[in-house]
Amino acid sequence: MNEIEHKTGMWSTRDGTELFYHKWTRSNDSEAKAAIIGIHGAFAHAGDFERPAEFFVPRGIDLFSFDLRGFGHWKAKAAHIADYKQYLEDIKYFLTFIQPKTSARKFFLMGHSMGGLLTLCFLIHESTTEVDGAIISSPWIETAARINPIIKAFGKIFAIIYPRFAAPADIKLEDLTHDENILAIHQQDIESGLRKTKATAGWLKQIEKAQKLVRVEASKIIKPLLILQAGDDRLVKASATKEVFEKIGTNDKTYKEYEQLYHELFNETTRNDVFNDIWDWLQPRIQ
User: Fold this and answer.
1) How far apart are the C-alpha atoms of 66 and 142, rounded to whole Å?
2) Residues 6+ apart with CB under 8 A from 198
3) Backbone phi, then psi, for 219, in 5-degree steps?
4) Which residues form the domain of 204?
5) Per residue in 235-280, pLDDT tens?
């Protein structure tokens, strides 16, 4: 296996915003079979793709990821965005940014949770993009936990009158993975500020718009798609993932559910089983 070379830096979006990114490649600079662009989940950061990189890079796949606006190295303490389409534009321009940095000729998106939702939105809005397919992990199409209707009502009001009103995210780390080492890393990230714990009412409103888009227009997705869903997911509804999967337009689509795994499939104790399933799906598509 080749050693992994890991680099980080800043890149400039279309509107000039500077975002932090990661690049994992093989140290011997051999030609890449493909490149994966990781889109992280809410209250996470681009560095979470370290585990997938450890598996895929030695197998000839370059991996890139960047901090979405409002997360990771973003200076504000609470996640906020005025329009979810800004995320999609950033994904599009990140693809342009990384193309000269890899010998790969095939590109796959890999989105987890909110990143999975945004990846689906991207495939709807950018159906003609040069992306060759996507891998989706536990997409945030519908929240599993019941939200207090009073809190939800106030959230809608604040989204109109004060979109930057911030509130804590009600996420229990122990619901994310069985891996105690990963949970310890997550806790360290919270303490350092790398892992955000708050989001604004305006941000949540935009996520809800993205969720509605996927539910209504999933049939517009025509790229090869692999959807992986945690079976014991306490954060997102697996039933919503299945519902959207059935609506997706492409015939080249695969769904797999992991019965006893928690939300973060790429961070679970049996993550190599998940990665092997992705590798089996990828290989015939990168020949």
Assistant:
1) 24
2) 77, 78, 79, 166, 167, 168, 169
3) -65, -15
4) 4-285
5) 999 999 999 999 999 999 999 999 999 999 999 999 999 999 999 9
Number of domains comprising the chain:
1
Distance (Å, whole) CA 85 – CA 89: 6
pLDDT in tens, 18-59: 999 999 999 887 899 999 999 999 999 999 999 999 999 999
Residues shown for the chain? 287
Amino acid letter, 165: F
Lowest mean per-residue pLDDT among 23-37, 65-79, 163-177, 240-254: 163-177
Q: What is the pLDDT of residue 189?
A: 97
Cβ atoms of 270 and 179 closer than 8 Å:
no
Q: Nearest-CA neighbor of 230 among 137, 143, 142?
A: 137
pLDDT of residue 158: 46
Give the helix, strand, coil percentages of the chain, each rounded to 5: 40, 20, 35
**DSSP letter, residue 164:** T
The whole-angstrom separation of Cα 283 and Cα 287 is 7
Backbone angles phi, psi at 96, to 5 degrees: -65, -40
Q: Tell me, what CATH number does 95's domain have?
A: 3.40.50.1820
